[in-house]
Amino acid sequence: MLRIDSRGQIFSWNRPVVMGIMNVTPDSFYDGGKYQGITAVLEHCHKMVNEGADILDLGAFSTRPGSKQVSAEEESERMIPALKAIRNEFPDILISIDTFRQSVASQCIAEGADIINDISGGLFDQEMIPYIGKNHIPYILMHITGTLEGMHHEEIISEDVHGKVRQFFENQLHKLLSYGPQQIILDPGIGFNKTIECNFALLKDLEKYRINDLPVLIGISRKSMIYKTLGFTAQEALNGTTVLNTIALMNGADILRVHDVKEAVEAVKLVLSL
């Protein structure tokens, strides 16, 4: 069961959870620039909530290969107006913030966000782990190697991927737990600094890197492991995404992070019917 304590409320599910992606970046790999302006953001959020999203994941910094890096100030300028509008429109839904910067995270938590989704697992900003730990904020701890600038081409893992991901989780959890009990979700970082073969291995054997029975998030939506394997583009990768999301669910995933909520919700329902 996934349980999150935030804003004086307890959110819990006895089934896998669907997290809908809401990018407010102009250059994300799949939907970059599609949702510019508060009206477009809210329309898409309504669509995802109506389709069954349990969590909305708001991002304002693109991590696709070759994307332009923006300052913390620009990231906040993109993020905060959208966050305020979403929280006002959906006062009861959980909102996750996709950022590796402590300054952006703290601003968003102050504006009503619930979860910090850090692609760097605390590596890119040394203030993030102490901030999360001291405040016991729900935190998605993603595995990555290398630096921000080299996240897609430095230190590529091609062997013993389960051991390396597990060791990373153990190291970062040790730091977080030094501040007391925490609310941690593990993300193996599929698509980041790993070969396609290693990405598939992480999808196949979740229990090899699950620690302390913590929930595991799988984010494979329209990623290159799908469209490169099948020989087309991210725009054509919905069916492949649904297939792999179904496999993830059958292998024990607790959260699916997706662009296409309806199809993910259907996958959850069907797997639960088995």
Model description:
- There is one protein chain.
- The protein has 274 residues and is α/β, with parallel strands linked by helices.
- It has a single domain (16-272), classed as Dihydropteroate synthase-like (TIM Barrel, Alpha-Beta Barrel).
- It is 39% helix and 16% strand.
- The protein has nine helices and ten strands.
- The protein has helices at residues 38-51, 72-89, 102-110, 128-135, 161-177, 196-204, 224-230, 238-250, 261-272, and strands at residues 2-6, 9-13, 17-23, 55-59, 94-98, 115-118, 139-142, 184-187, 217-218, 255-258.
- Strands 8-7-6-5-4-3-10-9 form an eight-stranded parallel beta sheet.
- Strand 5, helix 3 (102-110) and strand 6 (115-118) form a beta-alpha-beta unit.
- Helix 1 (38-51) crosses helix 2, helix 2 packs parallel to helix 3 and helix 4 crosses helix 5 (161-177).
- The longest helix is centred in the N-terminal third of the chain and has 18 residues, at 72-89.
- It starts with a strand and ends with a helix.
Key terms for this structure?
274 residues, alpha/beta, TIM Barrel, eight-stranded parallel sheet, globular
CATH topology, by name, is: TIM Barrel
Helical amount among residues, as a percent range?
25-40%
Which residues form runs of ≥5 with pLDDT under 50?
none
Name given to the CATH architecture: Alpha-Beta Barrel
Give me the side-by-side strand order of the main sheet: 8-7-6-5-4-3-10-9
Strand content: 15-25%
* Rg on CA atoms, Å: 17 Å
Question: Could you say which overall geometry the principal axes of the C-alpha atoms support?
Answer: globular
Largest sheet: 8 strands, parallel
* CATH level 4 superfamily: Dihydropteroate synthase-like
Alpha plus pi helix count: 9
C-alpha termini separation: 18 Å
**Rounded mean pLDDT score:** 93
What does the oligomeric state look like here? Answer: single chain
The CATH first-level class comes to: Alpha Beta
How many extended strands? 10
Q: Structural class of the helices, strands and pairings?
A: alpha/beta
- Tell me the count of domains: 1
User: Secondary-structure element order, as H and E?
Assistant: EEEHEHEHEHEHEHEHHEH
